[in-house]
Batch of 2 targets.
Target 1
Amino acid sequence: MALILLRIARRSASFEEVDSQTILETEFSHEGRPDLRLSVYEVADEHAEIVRTYVQHTASAPTLGLPFRRRHHLNVSSLEP
Amino acid sequence: MGMQTVRFAAPPRGQREAAAFVFGGPSVVSALTTASVDEEAAGQYCTSCESSWNLTLQGSMEVLLTQRELSTSTSERRDPKESEFRMLAEQSPMRLLWLIRYGNLRPAQLTFAAEIAGSIADSAIVVPALLELLNHSSPVVREGAVYGLEKHLTTEVRERLRLVSEKDPSPAVRSAARDAIE
């Protein structure tokens, strides 16, 4: 079963931005510091698994401060640190 | 209109200008003013609180600024955090709306400030500020404005969001607007 690295974005429009600083600050910063909260998951590349991951991610809303809403998911498997 | 106390935060040492934001009524931001305040005047008006002065001006005004917001240099200013936006939304919503309009926030700050502003209960003060952001050049900001507005679905807001869902150049913003009014 193929696995992917799934990233759940805070703003769908982030990845339409041309300004890398805005992307960095929107998606990878929190409270003025690097955002160390979970947002990337290694999951099976299947619809049900991706939905389950999203639900579990969003269900941690009290911790993450995330409202329930449709979010943008990115497969970041090809990215290297 | 009677005499009312207007509160200015103290500017940093050596800085001679204090900004003030002025509310012309109970809810509407009507003006942004600056007032020159020198050290001597500060001595006259300084209260027991070191970080603020109380001045008496004519008119129906309510002013409150923190020292941080008074800093005129962007490099000197500490960026407000999301937790501070939440605190302002709960405790001082007009200040949050002032920051959104006049605070020169960067898009990444503005988008979260806008979303958090949506938690302010009074649609009459929130909606105008957030509708303005639907015209912002950054799609991230417009998306944040949609998330703020989805908690204030008045007839006017629904109509604006319907237009956004059809005509905004950003697919993400269009999608967010569609979700908001569905």
Target 2
Amino acid sequence: MKWLSPNALCAFASLLTPLAAFASDSHTGADSMQAAREALRAHMGGQKTTALFVDRLEYRSNEGDPVMLWDAQASYGGDINRALLKTEGEYLLDDSQTEEAEVQALYSRAVSPYFDLQAGLRYDVNPEPDRYSAVLGVQGLAPYWFELDAAAFISQRGDVSARIELEYDLLLTQRLILQPRLELDVSLQDVPELGRGSGLASIESGIRLRYEIQREFAPYIGVAWERDLGDTADFSRAEGESISRLSVVAGVRVWF
Amino acid sequence: MQSRRGFIYSGAAASTLLGLQALLPPWARSETRHQHSRLPTLSGTEFNLTIGRTPLSIDGQAAGAITVNGTLPAPLLRWREGDTVTLNVSNQLAEDTSIHWHGILLPFEMDGVPGVTFPGIRPGETFTYRFPVKQAGTYWYHSHSNLQEQLGHYGPLIIDPADPDPVDYDREHVLLLSDWTFLDPHALFATLKKQSDSLNYQKRTLGDFLDDVREDGVAATVEDRLMWGAMRMSPTDISDVTGATYTYLVNGQAPDANWTGLFRPGERVRLRIINASAMSFFNVRIPGLPMTVVQADGLNVQPVATDEFQIGVAETYDVIVSPEKERAYTVMCEAIDGSGYGRATLAPRPGMSAPVPALRPRPLLTMEDMGMTHGSHAEHAHHEGHSMPDMRVQQHDHPAGPGVANLAENPVSRLHEPGIGLEDVAHRALAYSDLRSLDPNPDQREPGREMELHLTSNMERYMWSFDGVQYSAVEEPIVFHHGERLRLTMVNDTMMPHPIHLHGMFFQLVNGGGAHKPNKHTIIVKPAEKLSIDITADALGDWAFHCHLLYHMHAGMFQVVSVREREVGA
């Protein structure tokens, strides 16, 4: 009865089992394996992570009218789809009041190896009055290691603006890093209540020198220079504000 | 008859012991502690192994390890070819665990991979593994659950041959290499996800730029930086986790603890070297002492003399050394990125040491590692000469979405290269092309079909995959037909070397060895390399197939190979 060897029986049994998608189902319960299989999937590439990047948390001298500035981003999700919260604003230290503050709630999707497409809502707490905007942006790493964050905004009143931020890390040593930063604000039309004119509205450039005590924790010092341009500058002059402000900055960059 | 002389070493035993020593299994303690040249082992056919958390001290710091029977590394298991072994594995952790017997041929349900071969071992439960031992050699075992390998859940496994060992030696030492971190491995993985290059403290700086300008001129240096910058790749990106994070251990001991193996001048000493690291490749050398490689991944090879070899994660090499002098030798296990080292000493007496060589400058990746990339894919070479109509060449036209940042345009064979960090050494260095199986390959059929598989990644997002699909998104296993001989060609589209491991079956590396191709269970595929392995699919069942860099596997570089009877009519 050589043909009835255990191997032959096994082979026969496997023909009866309607396609055994998983070999292990035959010797363990399919139920207990199902849970283990799902856990394995989650464990091999399906992880969700939570991240918080506080890119800038700094004191700015602001030519005698000092402010605290924050610029942070929190996210949760997998490699492709993530939920994002961005916030940025300035707090006037002498007046003890918020000068500008915005929060963005975004859905972020990886659309290419280095870029995420982001869409969602922006809420400006200040300046008055409150306003909501729809956001469409891209964020990622451009060739030559430029960190890029660019977004267009349409407010509930219909005005359209855009912001482009670029950062670059220049390693002086493994921990001492010089970071030039450039931010451009663009407006499609005059928005007098915000003091913003159409065209390239303002430019801010800065350079920060940070020391990464740990990669996740780096105090820094630097300078930042803001300049209003075009119609925006006219609005500022009319308000009696200076159109150019130079700040010494000191702060900390934190992520975890 | 075995030729080893097997005498007893009766050394003076008094010694200064570190706190860790008492927690080590006897064979891993420096030999100041015990007198036998033959290693004490857990041997026999029935084993009780208990997985638990054990507080211990590593390099002077408190550490919470996951251990087997309370030691790091786990006890040396010694089996005999032809026996049937029974292993009762009890889980005293608060989480599931498992043991995978790395490189062992066994029924797949004994392979120990939760979610593939069994559900895992729940807290408080005992799982009994039982299988016949069909091979001999140097292997190891480790958890396949929840990043536990990073926390110490690994140990050596030696199987003595049923027949006389063709390798002639007088005594042996196991050197189990590993990488220890005091961080929680999940936190470490999350760090890689958030800032994948943040553990590298050997990046190129302004100082390097100025040095290069001095050496190569402004134009060449700028061109070089622009080339790498355009790719958003770094030539220093050799290891994801480096010596800045890891303490490299030999037999559970940090370099300063200086694990020492004894010899008598004139003896032939067999070193069984196992890389049980989570993420670290090592370049291994013993200054002043040439080595003869006699075994790779547990199976014998024709002896090859060398002075240094690279050992990828999960590989093993057995070498013979013959120290003639009454002096100490340093076994230098240098992390391939030069960011740290593990160290042991071979000496005629306890308490001796030899100079530890300085770490060599960190190597840089080259254009070759990049595969001259950009844009379109390398032509998938159709395998000629196999015109059986029902066996078409299987092609993998893999997706190249956000998870694939790089495509090797001109992948080449790099089997003759010893590996990163060994390009310019002034002595002999082992290459895969040097390896020949001692015995002729049992299955010398030509492969009936060829499959191509691409190793893919996006380093920036820390996504790792086969054919562009992380395991979390994989829908179908890779199917081998039971009994077939097939060729698997792998193309590494990434800029890192990957130790690719197939469970359940040895494969033969197509390296020009004819009927003596070396058998491997784990093979390093170098950056932008294309290599082939031949497999006899003789083990029915589902088997894990993955990159043995723990966090690459965890990020999705994992698949299941299902060996099935060929479906009727397929």
